[in-house]
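Hello forum,

I keep getting stuck at the same step: I have a sequence, I want structure tokens, and every attempt I make locally crashes halfway through. Rather than fight my setup again tonight, could one of you with a working pipeline run this one for me? It's a single chain of 387 residues.
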Amino acid sequence: MFKFYTNQESFKEDGTALFCDYPHLGEDAYVGQIIDVDSGLFQIEVLEIKDDFLSVQAQNDAIIGSRRHVNLPGIRLKMPGITDKDRADVKFAVEESMDFIAMSFVRSRENVQELREYLKELGGEHIKIISKIENQEGIDNLTEIIAASDGIMVARGDLGIEVPIEKLPSYQSNMVKETLAAGKFTIIATHLLESMIDNPFPTRAEVSDVYNSVMQHTDCVMLSGETAAGKYPIKSVKVMTATIHEAEKNLILENRDFSNEGLTARDIEKKALIKSAISAGEELKVDALFIFTKSGKLARLASSFRPNLPIYAFTMHLQSVAYMNVLFGVQPYLLENWDEQFVENIGTAITICKENGSLKVGDKIMLVNDIQKGETEIPVVELMEIL
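Reply #2:
Ran it on my machine without issues. Output:
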């Protein structure tokens, strides 16, 4: 038995104890609870709760480093949506012109709204918010969280500790389906190639995990420890890339619809425009869909249909290129010499795709554009042949 302190001063006087910087640990925990440390590597049972420490009993042997995660499965913690440290990190992200912020342990719509309002205060409203679903409360409130977010991360590390492990595969599948149905993007993360932190080759199960994640229609799969602290970061990326490409060969794509919930009236019009362009393009067997967009939203709508067409998206904003890079099936390009009258943009886009081998003379493209001209937004859907 040993002590698990919540008061740092008391902890400093006891060299045989552990310390957690969550001040409400004693209020949230209960006698008999199992607390997981470092993603479950070390488990402790709560025997007694005092003002500034918990008396706990180790359930297994483990070597624990500093700054490890502590999980209280099934407990609704009293943590704020955004801590003071979070605010400092967000401020840094805005100052450094980051493209995305992944928000940990999102539990409700209000958490996302609070972050979005703070970003707006700092002038960082362009930054996309990815909500990490990491506990049961996030699962329970998934629909409202999706509506408030730009994308969803299936953060399997902490989620696999916070919920019964056997439920994790079904939760992952449902999160991808529901997020796709809402027209948003998903990222599947954690333990995809975990063994490659120390080994040059993945396990067969890990390769199957990456493959099946693609087959579930996720937009992205993400490495973390494999590239951040592993011995084989480049090889990990190569293995994942090869597995993704193999999965994509067997992926059945079909033009599917998705919900209008959370879309503005203008977005619904854009969605209808994209839907008709994709349907016509597939019927006419065009070789690609060309999208011209400022914000990347038109490309997101096209991606959410999961068309059986490559999507080439062109924009004048580098931030939009970064956003579109995470979207399923979208290859974004930056047009640095953007023609506001739009005439030159089509020729420039075709030249780019001819030069990189994506398209050739005689190929047909379906062009979609809703770029505003003056005070008027003129949607265009046009069939073209490359000359």
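The chain has a mean pLDDT of 91. If your local run keeps crashing, start a new thread with the error log.
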